[in-house]
Amino acid sequence: MASKAYLPAGAATADWRDFLALTKPRVLSLVVFTGLCGLLVAPQSIHPVLGFTAVLCIALGAGAAGALNQWYEADIDAVMRRTADRPLPSGRMDRQSALHFGVGVGAFSVILMGLAVNVLAAAILTASILFYVLIYTVWLKRRTPQNIVIGGAAGAFPPLIGWAAATGRIETLPVLLFALVFLWTPPHFWSLSLFVRSDYAAAGVPMMSVVAGPKATRTQVFLYTLPMVAVAMAPWALGLAGAIYGVASLVLNAVFLVLAAQVARSTETDPAAMKVERRLFAYSIVYLFVLFGALVADRFIG
Amino acid sequence: MTPDDEIRRRQRARATVMGLVLGALVILFFAISIVKMS
């Protein structure tokens, strides 16, 4: 990120890369991938140009939500090592630029989705942006350790949007994909919160690991893994996906369960030595990518 | 490089990126229009 300490903060000095950083590009990759998978596994095909537009709108909507999240959370980002170098807390950008960018890109993504794709996809995209910004960022994050559980719904919308973009309807499979990402979020983020606990505590964010302690968090990680595994197996069990997805899901979920059980059993208190927690966090990202990839492979090969 | 030079450099870079984004959107809107008409 380009930054010069002697420059005054302001719209005129923010680099274009700072606007890109506002969109949380790493989170975007997962959002775009799950949205694209939702679109590809739908029973109806969509014209490639409109499919591209739908995925672009999902990315722009998620990026706008990320920008508005950073606009609202600049104060807590400033006290966390992991986020202190973001454009707002580091002073490379003024807050008004971030607000205008977030609202502008968000509105553009919804309007383009509504005009080019369909109204249902635009409506779900609007709900996902508002859910992430208002329900998660403004309402829940600073108030309750359940912030991640309910806020996880915001990240679960993309496969639903992708499916709705292709078909104009909502059916059982995309709802299961929504539930899968929703139930995947707590073990994913709580395993992270175990080894960055001091950061969240310093920022006053009531993460489960800060409020209830590591032991309760480890138990919750395992408990949320159980329904997640059930939902991940459901498409195969209900005959909505074939053998490729079934076998991939079986293996991926077995490994997830073993890692979650190891996290639940661990008594490690030193964040630097939390190997199983780091392993589960890293694996959970691979898990979601491979599971969704298997669903697409199953649709086209199976 | 003075602070003014650095600000100008960033403004030029932002203007270039904005130009490229707008150009890409023109192409996208044209493609969407063709698809919708066909």
Protein topology:
The complex is a heterodimer of chains A (302) and B (38).
Chain A: H1 16-22, H2 25-41, H3 48-72, H4 74-78, H5 95-117, H6 119-140, H7 147-167, H8 172-195, H9 197-203, H10 208-211, H11 213-237, H12 243-265, H13 275-300
Chain B: H1 3-37
Molecular structure report:
The complex is a heterodimer of chains A (302) and B (38). Chain A is an all-alpha fold and 302 residues long. Helices cover 76% and strands 0% of the residues of chain A. In chain A, α2 runs parallel beside α13 and α11 runs antiparallel to α12. Chain A is flat and about 50 Å long. Chain B is rod-shaped, with a radius of gyration of 16 Å. Helix content of chain B is 92%, strand content 0%. The termini of chain B are far apart. Chain B is mostly helical. The mean pLDDT of chain B is 93. Chain B contains 1 helix and no strands. Classes of the chains: A mainly alpha (302), B mainly alpha (38). Chains A and B meet through α3 of A and α1 of B.
Q: State the largest interface.
A: A-B, 16 and 15 residues
Strand and helix order of chain B: H
The biggest sheet of chain B amounts to: none
What class would the helix/strand composition of chain B place it in? mainly alpha
User: Roughly what fraction of the amino acids of chain B lie in strands?
Assistant: under 5%
Q: Supply Rg of chain B.
A: 16 Å
Low-confidence stretches of chain B: none
Shape of chain B: rod-shaped
Q: How many strand elements of chain B? A: 0
Helix content of chain A: over 70%
In total, the number of strands of chain A is 0
Shape assignment of chain A:
flat
In terms of quaternary structure, the protein is: heterodimer
Order of helices and strands of chain A: HHHHHHHHHHHHH
The number of helices of chain B is 1
* Mean pLDDT, all residues of chain A: 92
Mean pLDDT of chain B: 93
* Unreliable spans of chain A: 1-6
Number of helical stretches of at least 4 residues of chain A: 13
Give the N-to-C terminal Cα separation of chain B. 54 Å
- Mind describing the biggest β-sheet of chain A? none
